[in-house]
Amino acid sequence: MTRHPDADVVVAGLGVHGSAAAASLARRGRRVIALDRFPPGHERGSSHGRTRMIRRAYPNPVWNEFVDRAFTAWAALEAETGERLVHRTGGLYAFRGEPRLQGPDCVVVDDPGELARRMPGLAVPAGYGAVHDPAAGVVEAARALAALQRVAASHGAQLRHGVRVHGWEPTATGVRVTTDDGELTAGRLVVAAGSWSGALVPALAPLLEVWRILTITVRTGQPAGLPPNLGTFSVDRPEGLVFGIPDADGNGVKLGVDAGLVWDPERPADPPSPQEVAGLRELLAGYVPGLDTTPVELTACLYTMTLDRRFVIGPLAAAPQVVVAAACSGHGFKFGPAIGDAVADLCDGKPRDDLDFVSTARRGL
Questions:
Q1: Any idea which GO molecular function terms this record carries (predicted)?
Q2: pTM listed for this prediction
């Protein structure tokens, strides 16, 4: 007797991209089983924490359409759930030399007085200009992740936390997935496993490097950190890009550095050391004067990086029933629901030529 598949699609990973893929697929009536090896709210990946940045300012125009899809998808999720998930604050992205960011309605500002007018709370270093992005803002990351999972479940997706995916193999009708709970069969598999994606798709592993990234969040309600005095920001330094998120909706000002130690994801990321905390506090005090930098939250997360910081999204040539959404390189959360929609399109066999610049084919996968 022929066994019916357990699902149309199995999703490996319930971070923002796996959750968004599960939601988008389930909305379309697909039978979805989504698995995550860790419990809800875990801090082992890169989707935890209260806030993330969203911006239209990007290094290359090839990103602009996908960025636009991201803004549209967040608005649609807000309408669907009735929740406020994005706060528009504007952003300033400081650089020395030539500007490295562009985007719709973004402008380069060189005059120190104009920089101070546009964002009074940010101390832009002497000799720096900045790209001003009026559309930039803050994503409510924790709320967004929960909202995507609720949407997925409300449309019938099964979300199973604490279940590890050990491997998969192609079959004549799709894929067989081996898990802690036994085998699952499905027509498609989505690998959105973050830092563990290389273990599930070995061909990916040489392209990926996992970094430990640290952030500090300080007490909410401080005038120096509230919009419109402060928006999202970054300062491009040789030692690593500093990024900051203002105190939108009581979340506190958050700062981090876009560089870190190479890390084994099988080992929980060490919390910031006293020396690392002191360094983060010094940066925050320098860039946002007037803040009490006493931390109320210190976080370590894992970025899964590619050398060119472009994602890897698409089917595998050797197993087209497997769709990868990986390597979001520290800037992927803002694309969450747009990546979910892209994955659903690819699972449905719909071409997404607009994503050639981040495709698996581009990587020879």
A1: flavin adenine dinucleotide binding; sarcosine oxidase activity
A2: 0.97
Residue with tokens 């430990």: 212
CA distance 179 to 183: 6
The amino acid sitting at 321 is Q
Amino acid identity of residue 277, one-letter, is V
CA dist 224 → 119, 133, 137, 248 (Å): 11, 20, 17, 12
Q: Which CATH architecture has domain 91-134+209-305?
A: 2-Layer Sandwich (3.30)
Residue range 60-103, pLDDT digits in tens? 999 999 999 999 999 999 999 999 999 999 999 999 999 999 99
How many residues can be counted in the chain?
A: 365
Chain segment 263-304, per-residue pLDDT in tens:
999 999 999 999 999 999 999 999 999 999 999 999 999 999
| Closest C-alpha to 224, from 249, 251, 252, 257 | 252
Predicted local confidence at residue 90, as pLDDT: 98
Domain residue spans of the chain: 7-47+142-207+309-363, 91-134+209-305
Task: Record the tokens describing residue 13, joined without a space.
Answer: 């990973």
Which pairing describes strands 174-179 and 165-171: parallel, antiparallel, or unpaired? antiparallel
Q: Is the distance from CB of 316 to CB of 347 less than 8 angstroms?
A: no
- Written as six digits, the tokens of 188 are 């498609």
First to last CA, the chain: 35
